[in-house]
Structure formats: C-alpha cells, structure tokens
Write a structure and sequence with these properties.
Radius of gyration of chain B: 19 Å
Number of helices of chain A: 8
Distance between the termini of chain A: 29 Å
Shape of chain B: globular
Order of helices and strands of chain A: EEHEEEEEEHEEHEHEEHEHEEHHEE
Largest sheet of chain A: 7 strands, antiparallel
Shape of chain A: globular
Number of domains of chain B: 1
Radius of gyration of chain A: 19 Å
CATH architecture of the largest domain in chain A: 3-Layer(aba) Sandwich
Helix content of chain A: 10-25%
Strand order of the largest sheet of chain B: 3-4-7-8-9-10-15-16
Number of helices of chain B: 10
Strand order of the largest sheet of chain A: 6-3-9-1-2-8-7
CATH topology of the largest domain in chain A: Rossmann fold
Number of strands of chain B: 16
Number of strands of chain A: 18
Helix content of chain B: 25-40%
Largest interface: A-B, 38 and 50 residues
Mean pLDDT of chain A: 95
Oligomer: heterodimer
CATH superfamily of the largest domain in chain A: Nucleotide-binding domain of ferredoxin-NADP reductase (FNR) module
Mean pLDDT of chain B: 95
Strand content of chain B: 15-25%
CATH class of the largest domain in chain A: Alpha Beta
Largest sheet of chain B: 8 strands, parallel, barrel
Low-confidence stretches of chain A: none
Chain lengths: 285, 319
C-alpha cells in the first residue's frame, strides 16, 4: 500500500457518462495484481481544511502499462463529477493498491471472465494477467446498450484478443442480445473445466453465483460497497458473510458475531461467490 | 513580545511537545481516536505509528458485537455520518490477538488507551476487570456516548447519575486511569464532566459524534440503515471547541479534545481552549498520515512563536 500522489496523464470522455482516467505512479503500478483497487481523492485540496468531497472514492485498477494505471468510472455523483474535470498534469491523492486479488485458475481450468458495465475493469486487469501467463480464458462483457460501449475500452484496446472476448447488450443493439451469464451459458463447453470471475451490478453477481453453484464451478466476485477509507479503519464498507447465516454447524461454531459483516476493503473486494450475501444494502444507486 | 503575546522564534527542535495527562507522560499531544484507527496494525502500513503520542483502540465489549447492517456511512458537508454499531472482536479475542501489537507500540513510547463499551454497568466493569494486569495498556477510555446502539450507550452518556455510576463501576474494576468520552448530545456537557470527575474519572475525552440524519431525497429514505448516525469531521469542530472550553473550565481533571481536527492549527485551537491533548479521527480516513503531519505542524507553529513548551498553551484562551 502506498499513500502517494499520482499525475493525470489522460482523462477521456467515452460517452454516456463513462470516463477513462490514466494516472502515473510507479509505486502503485508495481504493487498491482488483478482485482486490487485504489482510493482516489476526487476533491480539490483546500488549505486548512478537508477537500470537498472529503472522502476518497474507490476504483478498480483496469490496466497497468509501465508506470501508468487506468481507472474507468461512471458519473454518478459529486466525486466522479469532480474527477471528470481533472486535467492532464494535475496531481491526485492516491492510496493503493488495496484489497485482495483474484485467485489464479488451477491447472487445466479455463478462466471465465464476466464483466458488467463499470464492473468490467477488474476483468481487463485479469485478462492482462492471464494473457501474460499464457492461461486459457474467455471474457463475456455486458452493457445495457451500444451507447454504453465505452465500458469495453480496456478490451477494445487489445484487438488481437479477437473472439476470446464476447460483447453483449441487454437491448441487442451490439453483439450478443442478453446478459453476460446467458452469453456464457449458451456458448460454454460442458466438458471444459472452468473457474469463474465476475464483477458488475449485484443483480448480475447474484445470477453468476446461482449459475456457478448449479454447475458446481468455483466462482469469485468483486463487489462494490460504500467505502470510506479503503484500509479497514472506518468499517463502513461491510458485506454480509453468507457462512455466518447458512454455513455448516462447524463453520458457524468457528465464527463470532464479529464475523457477520466483512469489510470489503480488506477481506475483499474479491470474495468467493458463495461466501457473501450479494444484495444492494451497501449502495443507494 | 508581539502584540499577541508571542516571544521571539526558537529552533523547532527546542520545542518540548511532551505533556502530562492523568498520571502519565505523553511524548506529544496527538493520539488517534477510537473507531478511526482499528486496533493499530491497520494503519501501520500507511503511517509511522511511532510518531504518535497515543493510540486509542476501537471500542471493546466483554463479548464480540456484530455491528449494524450497511449502509453504515454517508458523506455530508465537511463531514460524515456513521452508524457502525461498535462491531468489535470482544475482550477475549482482543487480549489474545490485538494486545501483542499494542505492546510493541507501547515499547516505542506510544501511550495505549483502550476504549471500553458496554450495554450495562456490569459489562463495563467486566471489561475493566478483564484488562487488569494487561501491560500493553496505559489507560481506559469509556465510551458512554456512542449513538449507534439501540440499548445502553447513549443513556449513560446523557444522564449525570448513570454516567457517574458507570464511571465508578469501571474505576472500581480497573487498575488503570479511566478516561470518560463525553457525548455532545446533551444540554449541559459540563455537568456530565463534573459527574464523571466526582466518580473517579482521570480525564475526559470531549467530544464523541453528534447525532445526525442524512436522507436520500429521491427515495425519501435515510442514507444509513438504522436511520440516524454520528456526525464527525470538520463540520463539528466549532461545537467541539465550545464544549472543550466549557468542560475544562468546570472540571479539574485533564480534557482530551477532539472533533474535526484536520490540521495542526485545529489541534492547537483545542489546546488553547483547554485540552491537554488531542485526538484525530475522521481525518485518518482521508489522509492516514494526518497525525504525523499535525505533530510536525505543531512543532513548527510553536517554534515560530517562541512557545518552548506546548503544555504552556493549554487553556490560554483570552476572553
């Protein structure tokens, strides 16, 4: 973890309120692994007081190239609105990389990457990592319609990946007509051993967890919750431990009430899909 | 001497930042506040913990607590609301897993204060007894003022008799100085301080969070799962300063000031208003190195004004 300052290299509007921010910081880049995130100070620094907005915002690292890392964001509130006005050359407060990372696929396992909307970035990071390791993977990426295709930017930047990447839209305006889980289930080879990785809206993650459980495939999800600090001290970003509710007698006996709510920043953001309750409690939007 | 009463500048290294609080010395006035710095190791990757004068742990109950469902936090103007609900590992796990790090911290000259929570007088007493003979700890800080639990807590913090009773019971169970963290959600905080002092408190931490409410207009729902929460951050600093002033004038025991400290100047304002030491809370979430920067800023500020001992500033508010 580095508490540091990064420099804006590029901040690009990809349409429909989706933006790509490129930041330069060698320390953050060198400690990155797919699944990890950074806390970004989005407000202007104010002498003698807190920036406005005060709290930093969490973003998955999408891609690392040299000493530059990318984050994808959607304009949803005051923090991301401030981010969209960041000009190249500006210094930005960054804490990271934070959190855990995806478990690499086992021998003979094909990695299935499922990304929805602004949940696609960790799948870009994972695709980069798996490609570097010559692992077998396929990505299924979904957005609501072609207007949101900016979310695909991390995969669009790698045209050589070709048909390893399946794009889907809910309205059928681009690529596969349907959601990413449907796209995956329709094309999968049942004889192939798989391991699933997913990031996206909770409704999508629930569908992933359900399908993976039915097919008895190991699956990991990266979750977004309302996060204050990113380092386990504010205890705001919790998600419910599924084992605390419906674990085996032994699993429950080994837990204390403290274990009911797990901090997504330090226990996650990557969790076993059957390990946490995937509801929207932590988010208003 | 300047118009404001300051002497000629001195060298920063000649400024003595140490002070005495309730029976022990601290190398500087700055501690991390309870519930904003975990049990210690969490922040050690982001800051130099040995720079601290003191460290106050997340509240400890006699048994582990779940805490509240999310959402637990909501940002507000120059502050935030929280309703964590005192999720904590409980006394046994604390003693087994958390005190080794705290002992290391203490060996570096950082004073370790354990925040104690409970739902009944007996529970506070039980935690105090359980922490007896624990050499990793310098003092206890009673949280009688957390607004985020359904029972207990706030009742102790808003009633002089109940506050006195829980203070006396904890003092009785403990072999360490007992600080009491006061709630700002009262009409007369000075009387609360007096009640705690009369029942054996060694110091008073002023203030805990202010009860607040933030709503999402579109859905017309509270932003926090349990509705109300505790407001912290720079937004509450003027309230905290007023209360430090009132409590320090009504009580003879030391006051430890907190509430929205962001900079060294904020911290020094608390000391001028009567705080012998200060704690930094919400700022840790935004910049984990705030405390280090505040300590250095205090040193510089004092040097420029010829303040040789920072303790000389305590309670020097001119009226």
């Amino acid at each position: 973890m580095h508490e540091t300052v990064a420099t804006v290299v590029e901040n690009r509007d990809l349409g429909s309120g989706v933006w790509l921010l490129r930041l330069r910081n060698a320390d953050v880049c060198s400690a990155h692994r797919a699944g990890r995130f950074v806390m970004i100070g989005t407000g202007e620094e104010v002498a003698g007081g807190p920036p406005s907005p005060m709290l930093r915002r969490p973003f998955s690292i999408q891609r690392v190239e040299g000493d530059v890392f990318d984050v994808l964001y959607r304009l949803v509130g005051v923090g991301t609105s401030c981010m969209s006005s960041m000009k190249p050359g500006r210094s930005v407060e960054v804490l990271g990389p934070l959190g855990n990372a995806f478990t690499p696929p086992g021998h003979g396992e094909r990695a299935v990457l499922l990304g929805g909307g602004v949940g696609i970035p960790p799948m870009v990071a994972l695709a980069d990592q798996l490609s570097a390791g010559a692992d077998d993977w396929t990505a299924y990426l979904g957005v609501s319609g072609a207007a949101d295709a900016g979310c695909f930017v991390g995969f669009d930047e790698r045209p050589t990946w070709g048909d390893q990447v399946v794009r889907a839209t809910m309205d059928g305006s681009l690529g596969f007509h349907g959601n990413v889980v449907e796209a995956w289930l329709e094309s999968r080879d049942p004889s192939q051993k798989e391991r699933v990785y997913a990031c996206g809206p909770m409704v999508m993650l629930r569908a992933v967890a359900k399908a993976a459980a039915e097919l008895n495939i190991p699956a990991e999800v990266s979750v977004e919750t309302m996060m204050g600090c990113g380092i386990g001290i504010c205890m705001g970003c919790v998600i419910e431990n599924k084992k605390y509710i419906d674990g085996t007698t032994e699993e429950r006996a080994a837990m204390s009430p403290y274990d009911r709510w797990l901090m997504a920043c330090v226990k996650g953001p990557v969790f076993a899909a059957d390990g946490v309750v995937l509801d929207d409690g932590g988010l208003l939007h | 001497m300047s118009r404001n009463g300051w002497a000629a500048p001195i060298a920063p290294e000649d400024v003595d930042l140490s002070l005495q609080v309730a029976g022990f010395s601290m190398k500087n006035p700055v501690s991390l506040a309870s519930g904003t710095a975990g049990y210690g190791p969490e922040l050690s990757h982001a800051m130099d913990m040995s720079a601290l004068g003191g460290f106050v742990t997340k509240g400890i109950a006699v048994r582990p607590w779940e805490g509240n469902a999310p959402p637990r936090i909501a940002e507000t103007s120059a502050g935030m609301l929280n309703a964590i609900g005192l999720q904590n590992v409980g006394l046994d796990s604390f003693l087994e897993h958390k005190t080794p790090y705290l002992a290391e911290l203490r060996a570096k000259g950082v004073r370790v204060i354990v925040n104690v929570i409970g739902k009944t007088v007996d529970e506070y007493h039980a935690v105090a007894r359980g922490l007896r003979d624990c050499e990793a700890i310098d003092a206890l800080e009673l949280n009688i003022s957390c607004p985020n639990i359904k029972e207990g807590g706030i009742a102790f913090g808003t009633d002089c008799v109940a506050a006195g009773e829980v203070t006396a019971a904890t003092v009785d169970g403990s072999d360490k100085p007992v600080w009491v963290k006061l709630s700002p959600n009262v009409a007369d905080i000075a009387s609360m301080g007096v009640a705690c002092e009369e029942n054996g408190a060694a110091a008073l931490s002023v203030i805990n969070t202010l009860l607040g409410l933030s709503i999402d207009l579109e859905s017309r729902r509270p932003r926090l799962s349990i509705g109300k929460g505790g407001l912290s951050g720079p937004a509450i600093k003027p309230v905290a300063l007023r209360m430090v002033d009132e409590v320090s004038r009504a009580c003879t025991i030391p006051v430890v000031g907190m509430g929205g400290i962001w900079t060294s100047q904020d911290a020094l304002e608390f000391m001028v208003c009567g705080a012998s030491a200060v704690q930094i809370g919400t700022a840790n979430f935004v910049n984990p190195r705030t405390a280090e920067q505040v300590v250095e800023g205090m040193r510089t500020w004092c040097a420029e004004r010829g303040v040789a001992r920072i303790s000389d500033l305590v309670g020097t508010l001119r009226r």
